[in-house]
Write a structure and sequence with these properties.
Blueprint: H1 2-6, H2 14-17, H3 24-28, H4 41-53, H5 63-76, E1 80-82, H6 96-123, H7 127-148, H8 168-188, H9 208-225, H10 231-244, E2 254-256, H11 266-269, E3 275-277, H12 279-287, H13 293-296, H14 325-330, H15 333-336, E4 354-357, H16 359-371, H17 380-394, E5 419-420, E6 423-427, H18 444-459, H19 463-473, H20 502-507, H21 509-521
Antiparallel strand pairs: 1-3, 2-4, 5-6
Length: 540
């Protein structure tokens, strides 16, 4: 990392046009080429666009997204299970080469773009654009600190060979301050559009009001993240977000628009046939008769109708997480279990837009805040129901289940996903007993389970957020792994973080060792650089 952190300002032409393979020296001497020296406000938009599509994995190849999002977040959220025999992250193995590739990619290629985009706006007096990039920086870095704990943040790009890591508590404090600064600017420019970025912003087209709602919704998300470690801060930040104004309508949802140049990475990796729908998804979506299954998954090539409801065809099949290599070789899970829905599997297509922040999530965040007695603009029950209806509408459905009955007030609970392929004589119990209809007379924990279960459904395929929420709240209740190959993490548990990548031990050794000390100092379960060391906010 020492070279990339020292030389972050040397942005290759890939920063601007995506997939150029020529050497920098050759480009730098091309009088027609785009270089740092020739960068101006007109060309600045290219940097901003790449700083958005790059960290969101919308690249010319799916490898970066696969190494982190697909092989870790997707399977630790239990959205998918791995069907390829030799992929072991689903069995809790921290595969060093995958982590190395994922985190090196971010700090070498994507973090420099974010930093440059913010720094350029600051030095040129582009205040709305600076605010946009501050919001974006917080959104992206939150993904990495919530995966690892302490990370290089405030000192990134300090031109030094050794770069220190910020404790996660300090990072979150900085997050809230950065959002304060950004949202103040965005509020002052409400109702306007950034002329500089209107053609380059693939989320909101430079609409500053929508960026403010995004920033305040992000504040709300981060507020709930610290609920169990800093309850007073959580309340203050959550109520501030509501006062500022969060996303409340699907028209204001944040999506990174895909294109033929920046396509959805699932459209690249899904043809590789390495994962399938989880048994958890089958149990929950089938039990709830949830229409969203049609937007999320495809019918299995060889569906099992023996466990379907009478009168309801449900050809969507899941598989258990943590299958042994032997079973993944013996059973044709690619046919027995469901792939993603067709829009995610068309090779060469731009694919669906990529998630950022959406209205249904803010309703569930507000519902959880209301459980705590915070001023969230509604009751927990009402906000919960609105979150459900908003998620259904986002996917094109009315408040109905697969039988045409009202979904949000249904007493339906998860169903059995059928036989376990590891023991065909065993009929699995439903994954949980949480009903859809809000338990008005239930305990706070019962109601929280319902909120997070419905949020888990709606977040799909935003597994990085679902995995974080699973660790924070311990919900939804999901199946244990069949087996674990991580001696520190039993099959009945879950990795609570990923481990630091190997290049850091080589290139930034003193600082990563110091980071481990910081990690342990703020953890309630200090175990060193292991998957069992809880993050700062993981205090429930």
């Amino acid at each position: 990392m020492k070279n990339l952190l020292k030389l972050f300002t040397i942005l290759l032409i890939a920063v601007f046009i995506g997939s150029c393979t020529e050497k920098f020296d050759a480009i730098n001497t091309n009088p027609k080429g785009l270089t740092l020296a020739s960068l101006d406000q007109a060309s600045y938009g290219f940097v901003v666009k790449k700083s958005i599509v790059g960290p969101e994995y919308l690249q010319a190849a799916g490898n970066g997204m696969q190494l982190l999002h697909s092989l870790y977040f997707d399977v630790y959220a239990n959205y998918f299970a791995t069907s390829t025999p030799n992929f072991l992250s689903d069995r809790f193995v921290m595969v060093g080469s995958w982590l190395n590739g994922a985190f090196n990619s971010f700090y070498a290629s994507e973090a420099p773009q974010i930093k440059y985009a913010e720094d350029y706006a600051r030095t040129k007096g582009l205040l709305p654009e600076k605010a946009m990039m501050k919001v974006w920086k917080v959104y992206i870095y939150d993904r990495y600190t919530d995966a690892l704990g302490p990370i290089p943040y405030s000192q990134y790009g300090n031109m030094q060979k050794q770069v220190s890591y910020d404790p996660q508590a300090d990072i979150y404090a900085k997050f809230f301050l950065e959002l304060d600064s950004a949202i103040t600017i965005l509020q002052a420019n409400a109702g306007t559009v950034s002329a500089t970025l209107s053609k380059y912003d693939p989320i909101y087209g430079g609409n500053l009001t929508k960026w403010q709602k995004f920033g305040s919704s992000l504040r709300l998300r981060l507020a709930l993240r610290v609920k169990y470690v800093l309850p007073a801060v959580a309340k203050t930040q959550a109520e501030k977000a509501i006062t500022e104004g969060v996303i409340t309508a699907n028209a204001d949802n944040g999506w990174v628009t895909t294109s033929s140049d920046f396509q959805n990475p699932y459209n690249i990796i899904s043809p590789w046939a390495e994962y399938r729908m989880s048994a958890d998804m089958e149990s929950i979506l089938k039990g709830y008769l949830d229409q969203r299954v049609k937007s999320y998954f495809s019918a299995a090539a060889q569906p099992d109708a023996t466990d379907d409801y009478t009168g309801v065809a449900f050809p969507y099949e899941g598989m258990r997480n943590g299958q042994s290599k032997t079973n993944r070789s013996a059973y044709a899970f690619d046919k027995l279990a469901s792939d993603m829905a067709k829009p995610y599997t068309i090779v060469g297509d731009k694919g669906p837009s990529w998630f950022v922040m959406r209205a249904f999530e803010t309703y569930f965040l507000r519902a959880e805040g209301a459980l705590e007695g915070w001023a969230m603009g509604g009751t927990a029950a009402d906000l919960y129901k609105t979150g459900i209806v908003t998620s259904l509408a986002e996917n094109g459905y009315a408040d109905e289940n697969l039988l045409g009955a009202t979904y949000s007030t249904s007493t339906a609970v998860p169903a059995s996903p059928g036989f376990d392929w590891n023991a065909a004589a065993v009929h699995l119990d439903p994954v949980s007993t949480a009903p859809i209809a809000f338990r008005t007379g239930g305990t706070k924990e019962q109601q929280l389970e319902q909120i997070i279960t419905q949020k888990w459904i709606g977040l799909y395929p935003d597994s990085q957020e679902a995995y974080a929420e699973r660790r924070r709240t311990k919900y939804p209740i999901l199946y244990n792994r069949l087996e674990s190959e991580n001696l520190d993490v039993p099959a009945t548990s879950l990795p609570v973080r990923l481990t630091y990548w190997t290049n850091e031990y080589t290139n930034n050794n003193a600082m990563v060792l110091e980071a481990i000390t910081k990690l342990n100092a703020e953890s309630s379960a200090p175990n060193g650089d292991k998957a069992t060391t809880k993050l700062w906010w993981d205090k429930k």
